[in-house]
Amino acid sequence: MRVFLEIALRSFRRQMTYRAAALAGLATNFFFGLLRAAVLVALYGEHSEVAGISLQSAVTFTGLSQAAIAPLSMFHWYDVMRSVYSGEVASDLLKPMSYFRFWLVQDFGRAAASFIWRSLTIMAGYAVMFDLTYPHNIEQWAVLGLAMLLSWLVSFSWRFLINLAAFWTPNAIGLNRLFFILSWFLSGFLMPLRYFPDWFVRLCYLTPFPHMVNSLVEIYLGVLTGHEVFQTLLLQAVWAVCLTLCSQLVLRLGVRRLVILGG
Amino acid sequence: MSPIIKVNNLSKHFKVYRYHRGAWGALRNLFSPQYQLIRAVDGISFEVHPGELVGYLGPNGAGKSTTIKMLAGLLVPTAGELIVNNRVPWKERKAHVARIGAVFGQRTTLWWDLPVIESLELLQYIYAIPPKRFQQNMATFRDLLELDSFLHTPVRSLSLGQRMRADMVAALLHDPVLLFLDEPTIGLDVVSKERIRKFIQHINREQGTTIILTTHDLSDVEKLCERVLIIDHGKLLYDGSLNTLKERFGGERELCVEYAEDYLSIEVEGATVSEHNGQRVTYKFEREKITASELISRISLRYRIRDLEVREPDIETTVRRIYEEQLLEK
Amino acid sequence: MSSTLDIYRRLLLLQFRSQMQYRMSFLFYILNTALITTFEFGSLVLVMQRFENIGGWRLGEVAFLYSIVKAVFSLMDMIFSGFDPPYFGRNVRLGTFDQLLLRPVNITVQVLGSRFELHRLGNIILGLVIFVFAMQLTDIQWTWIKLLYLPLVFLGQICFFGGLFILGSTITFWTVDSIETVNIFTYGGSEMIAYPMHIYHQWMRLFFTFIVPAIFLNYYPALYILDKPDLFNMPPFVFFLAPIVGFISLTAASAFWRFGIKHYQSTGT
User: What is the Cα–Cα distance from B12 to B38, expressed in whole angstroms?
Assistant: First the structure.
């Protein structure tokens, strides 16, 4: 247990050293966030509410989606793939701890650091510039906290799973990038899914992606009834569990393949 | 014959700005930038005549690569005169560069993903080599360097030795009058090293190509160069024949012997014992006083030897010696 | 001169052949970039079923703006791949740029010939497809002037962003760290001009009118071609500024580039 804490802390601290990159990233976040906000305001036009989302909430959304990028590594995450291709995975697998848990804990450290240094900074900046929507009461904040955790878990187990493609093909990076692209559009990252036609939303929910961003956003903005909140959290948890189990299964298959083929 | 390289009081100074850390530091950087003046090359002068094969030696950071960059036209000098092949290199870049060649041991000049032959064919157009001359050179090099086995292999798949040979060809295809070799044998096995060395000699002798060889490998220098230039801390410490260098500054050599038995007393005339570890003994001896073979004879007359090794002082030690003793060769 | 162009052609051929070596990767690249554009525009179409317009501009008109930027920026990205600032910066740091100085060929041509992202072709084609789609949805009154001006608009955008690329790359001669922030100006800038610019805050619009005149690259030409009124009452000649803005940007950037090379040769970085 102590080991995992150490790993998480190390990963957390490492994020702090990427200062220049973080600043550049923040600048990018603000630019695109503001751009999207302007587009949304223009879309709203005379309306004060569309699909149950107020204009203020829509603007808040643009900040939230930018804040979600760093902790959920939404644009790229190839760490496991790289270690498989470089052969490092062999020595990692020899370590006396679960390979999956090792990466899980590392990613948690990284995500926590990103959340504090990037996400909170972005939301703070937004709060200065705009009137934002906030969760109403303690319960909502608590539920939000749970949703964030589940969001990260779904995101991590998914990223881990698709990285495992490296065990089977040298072209895993192209495949992974394909999935990342899908995640941008199906997760409600670009626009809240509520704006889209029902058939499209239903399609999105066949994938784990909405549970990375959209569920989180809807809980934050309070557009769900108590019953729906419970449903959403449940679905998130189900996806998280399924993806985790799937990852571990596929990992085992991948390692067996590695061992048989001799790396 | 006029020299192909004429360097007179050449200097290259760099301003390295000191970066202050933190927020106040950033402000200080802006208003009163503090810098350190690094004299990478500090008033050196020498001449190289056509057809010479010169070794350019010195410890890391001595100013070697800075000098070469200036000679190649990549870097503009801070002060002094520099004429290569009747041109000021950095002023007439394209004309200058069309007549020189360069091989870097550390990285390739070829295009990574394509077969060697395609890189070479592209170079034909880049250097405007007449087709007949291209064919002739290709034939010569294919023969001398045994290129056929990998001519159609992509550069990324080549072994180090093959890549080095390919880079050599790339550098000589356009019949340069001056060739810069930077660590051309680094990382190669003994056989490959020998092959490259023979090739360098051939080019120098048959084509009359002037060659400047920068290397840490002393055996490269021993086998190829008659003349060496030694640079340290930006200053030219020595410019003369290799033999003279060895005789005057070679200094102490070491003979490491592994005896067949544990001898109590392993003293020998003409050398001093610097280490004695059971059956392993290290002797130090002066080149001027006794040759290695003489010493070995003396030892073998008295003791039974299992194995031995002669160690030369490395160039760093020699250079340091020269520098410490403040000796400049005219 | 002809030999320089010839060498450029050969360098491009080399790039092409290199990329064909990695066929699977190349196909994935094309697929992925096409997917991004398809989803991006698809999302716009789907979302606009619920909203009527963006700042008063209907789907077809926004598609007009979007498709031009998409196709033209991708074309620029393809041609100026060698000047992509992060890529160029890496070359300078690794010392590969020195290689170019050692060859008796124009440096700019060598940089342009050092990289050519063919897979951008996917976006160029998609952009053209969306443009045709936009034509169906809008009711443009074409005149000869408009038809002749359109390619000049394309050229203006290519030159402007190409100049931005060159500027970003030249800066890497001085910086030690990576130059990722430049992406805000290039990719961010292109995304910004893909929408009707009157939807942005006043200070942002003024900035992009008088300081970095990006508003004349796409928005004003679109106003002219779509026969839409100028909400800011600028003098009528501004509709035709696109190629001029592009030309100035490229010229200024090229001058800075030449200065940058000279500086690099003095200090060696």
Answer: 8
User: In which region does residue B209 sit, left (phi positive, over 0), alpha (psi from -120 to 50) or beta (all else)?
Assistant: beta
DSSP state of B203: I
What does residue B285 show for φ and ψ, rounded to 5 degrees? -145, 155
SS (H, E, C) chain C: CHHHHHHHHHHHHHHHHHHHHCHHHHHHHHHHHHHHHHHHHHHHHHHCCCCCCECCECHHHHHHHHHHHHHHHHHHHHHCHHHCHHHHHHHHHHCHHHHHHCCCCCHHHHHHHCCCCHHHHHHHHHHHHHHHHHHHHCCCCCCHHHHHHHHHHHHHHHHHHHHHHHHHHHHCCCCCCCCCCHHHHHHHHHHHCCCCHHHCCHHHHHHHHHHCCHHHCCHHHHHHHCCCCCCCCCCHHHHHCHHHHHHHHHHHHHHHHHHHHHHHHHHCC
Segment 139-178 of chain A within 8 Å of chain C by CB: 171, 173-175, 177-178
- CA gap C56, C35 in Å, rounded: 28
- Spatial neighbors of A113 by CB under 8 A, at least 6 apart, are A11, A12, A13, A14, A15, A16
Name the amino acid, one letter, at C32.
Answer: N
Q: Which residues of B are less than 8 Å from C104 in CB distance?
A: 93-95, 97-98, 126-128
Calculate mean pLDDT across residues B266-290. Answer: 84
Structure confidence by residue, pLDDT tens digits, C188-227:
999 999 999 999 988 888 989 998 899 999 999 999 999 9
Choose the closest CB to C14 out of B107, B109, B122: B122
Three-state DSSP at A175 gives helix
Q: Tokens 């002219």 correspond to what residue?
A: C224
> Cβ contact (<8 Å) for B14 and C267?
yes
CA-based angle B140:B48:B221, to the nearest 5?
65
Judged by 3 or more CB pairs under 8 A, whether A touches C is yes
Q: Which of residues 148-187 of C touch A (CB under 8 A)?
A: 177-178, 180-181, 183-184
Measured over the CA atoms of residue B178, residue B102, residue B86 and residue B10, the dihedral's sign is negative
Indicate the helix (H) or strand (E) that contains B296. Answer: helix B292-302
Is pLDDT larger for residue B220 or for residue C196?
A: C196
**Cα of A28 to nearest chain C Cα, Å:** 6
Give just the sign of the alpha carbon dihedral C47, C51, C57, C61.
positive
Put simply, whether C188 touches A (Cβ < 8 Å) is: yes
CA–CA separation, B192 and B185 (whole Å): 8
Q: How many CA atoms lie within 13 A of B95 on its CB side?
A: 9
Contact: C17, B97; criterion CB under 8 Å: no
Q: For chains B and C, count residue pairs whose Cβ atoms are closer than 8 Å.
A: 63
Separation between Cα atoms, residue C84 and residue B284, nearest integer Å: 59
Q: Across the interface, do A197 and C46 touch by the CB < 8 Å criterion? A: yes
pTM of structure: 0.86
pLDDT score, position B330: 38
Query: Which residues, other chains included, contact B204 with Cβ-Cβ below 8 Å and sequence gap of 6+?
Result: B51, B53, B210, B211, B224
Chain A residues with beta carbon closer than 8 angstroms to that of C25: 171, 173-174
Strand order in the sheet with B79-84: B35-48, B5-17, B79-84
